Every structure is written in structure tokens, then in C-alpha cells.
Amino acid sequence: MQPTRVLQALRYRRLRLTTKDVNKGYYKGTGTGSMGRHTKKGGYIIEWNKVRTYVCPPLEGFKLTPFVARTIAPTRGDYDGVPLGPKDPAMYLSRWKAENGLD
């Protein structure tokens, strides 16, 4: 048994529209808006009056706390003798083999 066409149409109308559901001329977009304009030569000029700016309210007396305490110092890796630091492929492979065993 299948539901009637009326019930199928009602269920379909509850879905969001896509570009495949309607005729040409429908552009959904992303809802972000433009932050500038295109130039004749293919460049892009940012218009700073269109750029969104978020202002953080004062946090004195704010009752919520961050996930990580502010007293914890950031940890840095020890890369003495490695010229590229964490980007060194030899160091990456040696660490991978030490942690994961054989290939």
C-alpha cells in the first residue's frame, strides 16, 4: 500500500527548496552576503563598511568559565636539533613507527 498523492505532496512541501526543485532563476546562496565588489580586471575590493565586526561585551563578573583554566601554560614541543620542527618528515615517520609499530 502507498499513501495517496496528496499526502506525498504535503510531505514533500515540508522540505527545503533546492535548485533542482524549481525552474531557472532560483539562486539559494549561502546567506553570507558580500563584503565588497569585483573590479573590471578580476580583482576584489573589500568595502570595510560591509565587513561584520563582533564586539565582545565586558566579561567582569561573568559566571561561566572556559573549558581550560586560564592558569594553564601552553605546552610547546621539544624540537632541539630538528631544523623543520614539527614539519620534519623524518621525525614524523620515526614517531609514527614508535607509536604504531610496523607498517
From TrEMBL:
It is found in: Mitochondrion. The keyword Mitochondrion applies. GO terms for molecular function: structural constituent of ribosome. Keywords: Mitochondrion, Ribonucleoprotein, Ribosomal protein, Transit peptide. The keyword Mitochondrion applies. Its main location: mitochondrion. One of its GO terms (cellular component) is mitochondrial large ribosomal subunit. GO terms for biological process: translation. Belongs to the mitochondrion-specific ribosomal protein mL41 family. This is Mitochondrial ribosomal protein L27-domain-containing protein. It comes from Corynascus novoguineensis.
